[in-house]
Amino acid sequence: MVKRFKKYEAGEGVQFMSRLAALHKLQLSLNDFRRLCILKGIYPREPKNRRKAQKGQTQIKILYHKKDINFLLHDKLIWTLRDIKIMNRRIKKADSVGDMRLKRMRINKYPQLRLDHVVKERYPTFIDAIKDLDDCLTLLFLFSTFPAIKCVTRSQTTLCRRLSVEFMHYVIASQGLRKVFVSIKGYYFQAEVKGQLVTWIVPHYYPYQPQAKSEVDFRIMANFVEFYTTMCGFVNFRLYHSLNIAYPPQFNVSIDSEESQTDETTFVSERIAALNCEIKKTNDEQFEEPEEMDLQLISNEGDSEKVKKMHEREKALKRKKNLFKGLKFFINREVPREPLVFVIRCFGGKVSWDKSCFVGSTFDEDDETITHQIVDRPSISKQYISRDYIQPQWVFDSINQGVLLPTNKYFLGVTLPPHLSPFSNAHREITEYVPPEEKALRDPNLVVQHEISDVENEDDEDGSKQTEGELNLALVNAFREENKQIRAENQVEEKGGKKIIEPESESDEEIDVTDMLEYSDDENAEVEEKELTKEQKRELAKEKMAVKSGNVFKVDTKKEKKLTEQELKLRAKMVKSRHKKLYHTLLEKRAKATKETKLLENKRRQIDETRKKVRAKKNNA
Amino acid sequence: MVPGKLKRKVIEEKSASDDKEIEKKPEESEEDEDYGSDEDLLVEINNEEQEQDGSDDNSDAESDNSDDILSFESFDSEQEGSENLQEVSSEIDAEQTSSDEYEEQEEFIDKEKAKLEEQKRLTELKAFRKKERVEQKKASELIKEQLRQPNDETLISAKTDRPTTSNDTDENGKKFIEYEDDGDTSDEEDIRNTVGNIPLHWYDDYKHIGYDWEGKKIIKPPVQDQLDTFLKKMEDPDFWRTVKDPQTGQDVVLTDEDIQIIKQIKNQKNPNVNFDSYEPWIEWFTSEVEKMPIRSIPDSKQSFLPSKTERKQVGRIVHSLKMGWKKTKAEQDKIEAEKKIPKFFMLWDSDTGRDKMRRIHDHVTAPKRALPGHAESYNPPPEYLFNDKEKQEWEDLKDEPYKRKLHYVPQKYKSLRHVPYYQNYIRERFIRCLDLYLCPRAKRMKATVQPEDLIPKLPSSKDLQPFPTTQSMVYTGHTDIVRTMSMEPMGQYFVSGSDDHTIKIWEVATGRCIKTINTKGVVRSVAWCPNPKISLIAVASDKRCLLINPHVGDIKLIAKKTDDILSDAPVIEEIENERIKTAVQWSSEIDANDYKDGVRIIINHFQEVSQVTWHGKGDYFATVMPNGLSRAVLVHQLSKRRSQTSFSKSHGMVQCVLFHPIKPCLFVASQQHIRIYDLVKQEMIKKLLPSCKWIAKIAIHPKGDNLLVSTYDKKVMWFDLDLSTKPYQTLKLHQSAVRGVAYHSRYPMFASGSDDRGVIVCHGMVYNDLLQNALIVPLKRLEFHEKVSDYGIFEVLFHSTQPWLLSSGSDYTIRLYT
C-alpha cells in the first residue's frame, strides 16, 4: 500500500516549533529557557508561511526553528541551569531547616555558568563580535552606573565598569573615535574598531531610577549583561593584544579601591581618573599601521582618481586623529567630565581638572600652558588671557567637523549654535530636510573660511568676535553673488558678440538674458531712427539686407513639464502588477518625506522671519 | 543492701531498746540524719559493710574516719568513675579482713601474696553477697507465707538455714527474724496486731480486734460515748495530742517530738528540726587557682600522655591540608574571590579566521539601532522643536505611541549642564533587549529601489512619433449620442451612426457633412465595405440591417458599378433553411425615398441588431443579435444574398464578432470569453480567456496575430494569439469602462476610448521575429470630449492611411486628433 501523504509532515510544518513545545522538549522552566536563549543568542524566527509553520493554526505564536532548539538541547549550559535549579532548592531547604553551615556550604558550591564557548559559537570570527558590540557596550555603560539592586549585584556592576573603562582605553590608545553626539538621551560615541564602526551610548548621570515591574524587568537585562561581560572581556583581551598592551591594563590610579564600593562619587571619579592616565604597554615596539603601508603600495602602482581620493581621506583622517595634539584642556568642575576626558584624550589632547574636587588631575588651573578651559557657566571671575574659555560643545563640534572650529561662537555665556548630529549625513535621501547650518558646514568654501577666521582670532583675540562670524558669512555670500554675476555677464557677452541666434537653448535663464538683449537693441534702433543721416540710412539698409534675427522659439517649460508628467503618469500604469503595491508605497513614502521637509522648511522660514523682525525692532530702538 | 539496712536497725534496736513503744517515725528521722550528707549510695554500702565486718573490733571513731575519707572519694568518683571508688573500698575491706583473720595466721606471708589473696577474697565476697541477697529475698517470701499460716517452727528453721558468714549469733536470731518481717513489708507498719493487712471492720462485731504475737486476742477498748469523750476532752490536757491507734484500738499520746515533726511537715519543711537548709556554700572548685591542690591525689599518668585518637585526627587534618584536599579559611576566601573574577584569554586566533564549531543555524544578525538625527540633539536647530500643534498631536497619540512621528519630544537646553537624565533610557534599553531575544527574525529583501526604477524601461515617446497629439477638428451635427463610425477604405470619408436615427457621411479633411441618411431606427453599428471597388455601407439600425450606397467619392465609376451589381439579384437555387428563414429576410424592394438616399438592400432580422462587420474582401458580412440565442450571429453573403448561421448552440450573449483579416476565421466574443471559429472547417479553433467580467469590444491587428479586447471593467487586454489563450498584457490605463478600441492599419499604434472621456493612444509594435514579443508603450492621453450623462467615448477609429484618430462621444460630436 502506498503511504498516504499527510499535511505538515515535511517542509515548514516540521521546521518550526512553538515556544511551549520547546519548553517541553528542553524540560526547562520559562525563566530558564529565556536565560538560555539570551545567553546562546537564540531568537524566534519568522516563517515564510505562518499558517503552514503552525500546522494550520492561524493565531500568531512565537516560533523557534527546530534546529535552534536542538542547538540549545546539546549545550552543556542546560545542565548547569538544571544544577542551579536543584541547588536553589537545596539552599532553600537548608535555610528553612535553619542549618546555616549547610547553607553556606551549598552556596559555596553554587554552580557557575561558563560562557566562553558560547562566545565563540555566537561569534565565529572576531569581526563578528565587533559588529555586535553596539548593544553590548551600551548596556555595559548603563550597568556600570547602576547601584547594587536586587538582581544586579555589586560585583556585576564593577565588572561592567572595569570592562567599559578598558574599552575606552583601547579607543584612546588606538585613536579610533570618529564621531560624538550629545543627544537628550546621552552621549553617542562612534569609534572605528578594526574597520568596523561601533556606536554606543553613555547616558547622562545618573541613569538609575527604580522602574515599574511591568515596565522593566532587570533580570532580563542582567542576563544580557552576564553574556555581554564575558564577550566584552574576550574582545578587550584581543584588542589589547593587538596593540601590544598588557591585559588587564595597569593604571596608576587604583580603580577598585574599597572606598568606591560604598561611595558612588568616588566610584565615578576613580573611573574618570583612570581614563586620564596612560596604560602600560607590554613592550616598546612601535607597531606600524598597516593601512598606511597599503596606501603607499597602491600609490606606486598608479595615480588614479580613486587612489587620490583615498589619499585625501587618509590625510583628513590623520589630521582628525591628532586634532587636539598639543592642546591642553582644563575642565571646570560643573562640566560633565567623563565624556570630555575620553574625547579629548582620544584626539591627543591633555586634560586636567580641579585637584581639590576630584582625584587624578594632572595639572592645575593656574598652569600657563593651558590653551582651552572648558566652562559651562555664564561667567567666570578669574580669567587668564592665555587661554580660550569655551563651552563644551566646541569640543564635540570640532571633532565632528574634523577641524578646530573658531572659538568665538562658543565663548562663555554665548548662545550656542545648534549642535548637529554627525550621523545624519550617511544614507540620506534626497528629499530629506537639511538645516541651513548643516548646509553651511558642508560647503567647502566655508571650511576654508573658518580656518582663516581661526587665524584671525589668534591675531586679535580681544576683538569683537561675536559679530565676526556673521560678517564672514555675509562676505561669503556677497562673494558668491559676485561670482554668479560675473559668470552670467561673460555668457551674455559671448552671445551678444557673436550674434548667434539659438533656436533652442539649453537653459531658460540664458534664453531670458539673450531675449532681453535683443529687445533692448530694437528699442534703441527705433529711438535713433529720427536722427538718421544718409550714411546711417545706408548702413541701415545694409543691415536690412543682412540676415535678420528671427524670433526665438520659446519652450514653454510649464507645458513641457505638464506633458512629461502626463507621460510619466501613463507609464506608471505600466508597472508590473506584482510591483504595483511596492511602487505606490514608495511613492507614498516619498510624498510623506517631502511633506515633512516642506513642513520643516516652512517652520524655519517663519522662525527666521520673526527673528529678523525682532532684530529690526531692536535696531530701530 | 538489705543486710546492711537490717544491721543498722539491729544496732538502733539495741540503743533504743528501752522504749519499745516508740513508733517508726523517729527512727526514720535518725536514718535521715545519717543519710543527710551528700554521700553516694555506694558509699553507704561500703560504710555499712565496714560496720558489718568490723562490728566486733573496730571502734566507732575508726568507722567515722573511714567515712570521712570515703566522702572525699565520693566526690572524686564523679570525675574518675566508679572503678576508682571500688578499688578504694576494696582496699579498706582488705585492711579490715586482715585485721580479723590474718592475725591468727602466720606473719611471714608476703605482702603480694596477701594482696592476691585479698583480691580473691574480695571477689569471693562479692559473689557471696550477691548470693546472700538472692537467698534473703527467697527467705522473706517464705516468711510471708508462713505468717499467713502461722507456724513458728518452720519459720525459725528456715531462718537457721541462713549462712553464718556475718558474725550474727543464734541468740539474736529470734529477734532478727522478728524484725525481718518488719523490714520486708513496710517501714511504717507496726505489727503488734498480727491479723495483717485486712479491713478492720471485719472485727466490728467482735470484742477483739486481732491477735498479738503470742496468739492472744487483742481486746478492743471499751467504746466511749460522746459524753465521755467530751469529758475527757475537757479534763485531759493531753487530749489534743491523743491519737487512736487503728491496729490496737488504744489511745496514744504523741510526744513533743512527734508534734514537732508534724508541724514541720505541715509547714512543708524538713521534718528534722535541726536540718539547716541554708548552710554556707563551700566552693571547692572555683576559678581561683589554689596554691595547694584541693585533693592530695596526684594526676594520673594518663593525663600526661597525649591522646592517641586525637593525635590521629590531627594527623589526618594535617595530611589533607598538605595534599590540598582541605583548605584553610583564608585559602577558601581567596579561591572564592578568584572564582568570581572571570578569566579572559585569546579566544580568537585571528581577526577573520573561523574555527569549525557548532553555530546558530542560518543566523540572522539583529539590525542595529537607527542613528540619531538632528532632532535628538540637546541643542537642535529651532525648526526641529515642536510647536503647539505638534505638541498637541504628540500628546493626543498617548495611547498609540507607535503612531508618533518621534518617540521623544525634542528639547533645547541652553548648556550641557542643564541636560537632565533621559527618563525613558532604561526602558529603551530594556525594549532593545526584548527585541533581541523575543522578536522573530527573518531575512527579507529590503527595497532600495526608487519608484522610478519600477516603471519598465520603455522607449521615449519622442522616438515613437508620429502619433496623434492634439485635437484638430470637431465634427458636429448629430443630435444624439454618436455610437459608431467607420472609415472609407481610401480614407477620404467616414460614416457615423447616431442614436438620432441617422447616419452621416463626413469628409475627413474638411469636416463637412456630405450626407445625412435617416434610417428610422437607432443606429448601433455602421461598417464601410472594405472592398475599394464597391461603395457600400452596412448599417445596423434597430432590427434591420441596411446596405447603403453613399454615392460619394468616385460616383461615376464605383457608385454606379455598385448599383449595377446590386440591381440584379442572383437566382436563389438552394432552398433555405427554415431556421434562417424565420430569422432573416432579404428584401430589395425599397421605398423611393429610401432608394434616393442610397438604401439598396434591407435585411430584416427577428431581433435587434447590435453590430455589423465586413469580411476583408467585402463579400461577406456578419450581423450580431445579442438576444438571438443560437442564431445570434448571422453571416451574410452579398453576392448570393444568402444568410447562414454557423452555430447550433448559444454560448451566452454575443457582444461582438470579427472576421480575421487573412484567414477564414470568425472571432465571437461573448460576455467573458472569445471563441475563434474556423469558417471552412466549421469548428472552434481556440477559446481565449480574458478573465474579465464583460467584454465591450474587440479589435484585431491587421496582421491577424494580435487581438485587443476592451472590457467594461476598465481593462484593455492584448492577446498574442501565438502565445497563449491568456492576455499577453493587461493595461489598466482607464478609470472607467472602455467602450472603443482600434488598431491602426499601417502604423504600429492602437487607441482606446473610455467613459472617463479619455482616449489613450499607445504604441503597439508587433515584430516579425516570432521570438520577440510585442512592445506596448502608452503614448498620450487625449481628453477633449465633454461628459454627458455617464458616458464618454463610444468609438475610436483610426484613419486608414494617416496617423489620425477619430473618436465619437456622448456629447454628439466626433473629434479628430492629429
Structure report:
The complex is a heterodimer of chains A (621) and B (818). By secondary structure, chain A is of the alpha/beta class. Chain A has 25 helices and 9 strands. Chain A has helices at residues 12-15, 19-26, 30-40, 50-53, 66-73, 77-97, 100-108, 116-122, 126-131, 133-143, 154-174, 218-242, 258-262, 264-275, 290-301, 305-321, 337-346, 393-401, 436-442, 444-459, 465-498, 508-528, 534-545, 557-572, 580-620, and strands at 16-18, 63-65, 177-182, 186-193, 196-203, 328-331, 350-353, 372-374, 388-390. In chain A, the strands form 3 sheets. A 4-stranded parallel β-sheet of chain A has the order 7-6-8-9, with helices on one face. Chain A has a 3-stranded antiparallel β-sheet with strand order 3-4-5. In chain A, strands 1-2 form a two-stranded antiparallel ribbon. In chain A, a hairpin with a 3-residue loop joins strand 3 and strand 4 (186-193). Chain A starts with 11 loop residues before the first helix and ends with a helix. Mean pLDDT of chain A is 80; it is low at 283-293, 447-469 and 492-523. Residues 1-100 and 150-186 of chain B have low confidence and may be disordered. Chain B is 30% helix and 21% strand. In chain B, helix 3 (41-53) packs parallel to helix 5 (82-102), helix 4 (60-80) runs antiparallel to helix 5 (82-102) and helix 5 crosses helix 6. In chain B, strand 11 (537-541) and strand 12 (544-548) form a beta hairpin. At the A-B interface, helix 3, helix 5, helix 8, helix 9 and helix 10 of A face helix 13, helix 15 and strand 30 of B. Chain B: Residues 1-115, 144-189 are annotated as: Disordered.
